[in-house]
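Handover notes (outgoing to incoming on-call)

Open items:
1. GCN5-related N-acetyltransferase: sequence verified, structure written out, both below. Nothing else pending on this one.
2. Nothing else urgent.
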Amino acid sequence: MKLIRKNMKIFEITESGKITARLINFRTEPELFTARLVMDEKIHKEVFSNYLDKLAELLKRTFPDKTIVLNIGRVDKEINGPHFEVIKRVQMELEIDKFGPYPENEKVEALTFEDIVENIDKIYDAFSPVDKKAFGIKMRDQLLRMFEDLMINEKFGHWLPELSIKIGTPLKGFVTCAKMDGPSTNGAFLIADLLVFEKFRRQGIATSLMREVLRRGKTKGFSRAILSVAVKNPAMHLYERLGFTITDWSCFMVVDN
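GCN5-related N-acetyltransferase structure tokens:
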């Protein structure tokens, strides 16, 4: 198996001189390589795991100092290999047109990037382990850059400060939100992150944050809320209780160097 760089956006994967797959829209960062895996040939499920394991070994040799995260699309059966792990993430959605107010029991305030900077150590410790793997996050600086890309650089959509809120002084938990572009997201906003520090969990704070975000979203004229969550993240149960339903899903292959 060989990895051949085709251009600035595509790597080709070949076996015996024949292209079997492509890595498209790849991004390289100091500690991370991400891409989407597109198969040129349909591979039987029974040998797909072996194919991914060979690919994982190849990528580890090619990028020895990076964590590799590949979006491999929908995989029906649970697969993992000696050199990789697969994390399933689902997209969930909720119609909020009829979402009403709730009795507030905590003071809700606007979240700022300064709040993230000041609390990054606690945020890193509280960040879901499965999400750290899915995003290739191993250090606090990486997580801080992710929030900077969301809130300052707007790489994940237009930042919505009016819907990004926090509870507690000192900070107990927060939600971040953005507006995505594209026809499929018309009338929708993205709930990018929901996080509550460990000592304040199971006190209803996450529910309060979510309900307030949905209320504000309705007030701002949005009709839908969209989020993405790993199926092994306990927060998925909260989203289901609030009425979110699964609309799509993808699997991510993680190769840890």
